[in-house]
Request: fold
Amino acid sequence: MSALEELNRTILLCRDYVVDKLTDEDICHGFQSLQVLCVSDLRNLSSHSGQTALVTLVSLLSRMGMQVGLTIPEVAMLSPQPPLSGSSLFTALIASSETLITGATVRCNSDVNPDLIFVLGDTQIDSSHASCWRLSGSDWYGALATEGTTEAQAWAAKWPVGSMVSAALAANEAFKFVVRRLTVRDQTDQVFFAPSRSCSWSFDSVPVREDGVHLGQVDLISAGAISQAALYALMRFPNIQMWGRVFDDDLTCASNLNRNMLTLASDVGSSKVKVVAQRCAGKLHLDPVANRFVGKSFDGELARRVLVGVDDIPSRWEVQCHAPGWLAVSGTSHFNVSSSAHSPDAPCSGCLHPVDDSAAANPIPTVSFVSFWAGLAMAVRLLREALGSPYSCNRQHLWLTPLRMDLPHAAMWLPVAPRRDCPVHCLASQGL
Amino acid sequence: MTTIAEKKFVVEIVYNGVTKPLQVQPEEQVTALLQKAIATFGITQNPHLLSLFRQDGSVVPENESIERAGLKPGEVLLLRPNAVKGGGGLLRLARDIVRTTFHTLVECGRGECECAIYWTGPTGEDLVDGYEHPIHKRSPFGYEVDDFWLTEFWKRLAISKRSIKVQVHTHPGEAFHSATDNQWPIVSQPGFVSIVIPGFAAGEPSLDRAWVGRLQADGTWRRLVSATEAVIVA
Reply:
């Protein structure tokens, strides 16, 4: 295995915009040569949200092949952070070096001459580095700002949604930094890769019971990148209970490592469902079903809650046809994330994705943080559904392009319009 | 003095999270706005899959003028992929279509010759409620549809506002799409469905053993895992 193979899909995504003369090796080197320093003090790592922000950021950066340096104290892990193992945060992160992408190291700060610095919360740093961002946020809200633009608070939140948002925002800035250095083909496209001085996103707060949340039985269709990102997030939600099945007939391959958040390089060749079930064990009970979900030959009934992370659109219709209850679907297309939820009486996933997309059959260009947004959005939808506080119908669909989250329409909440030609012939479409 | 009212206005187009204003005129076609938007953002990746969406989630119809589509000054439109353009939602089959198709294929082919059937339905709908058995030459190795019949068939379809939804034909042994099948479908639009029935359609009238494929935008055929990805019984 080589980084070139593992970063194949990220390289493919860059090809949308970088100059044609660059070889795959050039693009790969662009990512591998970036040195990123992550800095935090003890206070900001003394909360589950702070720890989750750091672990998620390091993982998203590593899955782009970047070199990560850490200036952090040793601190005990407050909760498990799969796929990391161990009980000490610093040690576990250092041990993750080169376990995600070949050559993507995680080291202590003394070995790193950073191009970028990411600072957690209100950690004090002594640096006038031009490219320095600060991650901050709360339970449901995450923010990223260049040093000196805003006054950040220490990470103290109990719920880690905001911290994962801030990590995804930061990973995006690192990606854009690389693309800017690679040279964008068309000057007018530079706007997509301009740095964001300050950006944020909120999934909106929702009251959570102290005694925990029972998500009940949940089936996952696919054990790929989006499902893994959703499970990565769910694993970090405090005090939740969930059981169910995960369906996928695929084996882990090298080109999955750039985005499959629960997968290690050593998992290549293993069944995706087994990898997922194993990484989630201890908190979520998932039965691995090493078959593709095919409704016609499926002898049983899907759970009342289903998460769909497949890109294949006919498969989404098939699941929608067989889902007896609530369904969430997330997908990505280049830099775009689509996330939606569908109760039985609402316009279905067929109304939103009405026709097969032939491009989905080809290798899909992807990058870690885009897939991660898709899974995180799906995990939040599941949580809200279980809490009885789903998003309103005006927010049935989220279209999010994380490149420029500082701009007003980077993310748009939308309703789903029922369609007369809905391929699933859902109730909403029949009512037209 | 005659005053000419300024009718131009600006709509906001969002692509990849970036917003750009575009000036439009009420009588301008939406498709022209779409092309302008694609050009403005310099999109080269599958531009034919893109559509404009309103903030209520609906697609702005491309066959309308800006005015008839109801676009308003300052309206924010999302430019994003709409796979509708790839064609090919699930087709709803009238209940007897599969059975009668098999009956015709068996009767015509007599277990020794290939045969073809075209499934038809109202243009613009996903319903298959009729079939046509073309006049054709037949052999164990292929079939050739009569030119004159084909011309008349097209005329009939146009008059009745119907279209061919699926081509179905038999093979002697295994079901597959031959090079000829790939090159000469009766309809060459992306999304068109082709079904090949093995064994001259002998046995149970079922699509379970059939080869089912969908024509892609690049002219290649994509084999579907099962017929249920293309058709369902209404």
Q: What stands out?
A: Chain A has twelve helices and 15 strands. The CA atoms of residues 215 and 279 of chain A lie 18 Å apart.
